[in-house]
Amino acid sequence: MGHLRKSKDNAVIFGVLGGLGEYFNIDPVLLRVIVVVATFVGVGATVPIYLILALILPEGSSSKRNPRRTSSDRSSSFSNRGPQPKQQRKEAEKVDEDDWSDF
After folding, report:
1. Per-residue model confidence as pLDDT tens digits over 43-59
2. What is the DSSP code (8-state) at residue 44?
3. Which letter does DSSP use for residue 11 in this model?
4. Which residue, of 5, 15, 31, 86, is most buried by count of CB atoms within 10 Å of its CB?
5. Of 31, 33, 35, the residue nearest 44 (C-alpha)
6. Cβ proximity of 46 and 32 under 8 Å
7. What is the per-residue pLDDT across 11-28, written as a single tens digit (0 to 9) for each?
8. Is the dihedral of CA 29, 34, 37, 39 positive or negative?
9. Is 67 left (phi over 0), alpha (psi -120 to 50) or beta?
């Protein structure tokens, strides 16, 4: 078992529940449902504990080979390609207004 860390691969907000799921080999979706239900039921410690764990837990390393590309990466890669040819738009077909056979 590895060290308890925030997950970069399975993060929705901070990656705390994804990291807990990876550490304990539990589905993070189940943990998220439990935390949401506990929050709405009125267990007062869920949000503060989550925020404390988000501040304390170290960042995890990504297991993906290709990390997510940011919008600045995408815009620079598109600008380096040069002009793109414009695709021709297909003309709309004219239909007889009295033809309601499709309905």
Report:
1. 888 889 999 999 998 98
2. T
3. -
4. 15
5. 35
6. no
7. 889 999 999 999 999 999
8. negative
9. beta
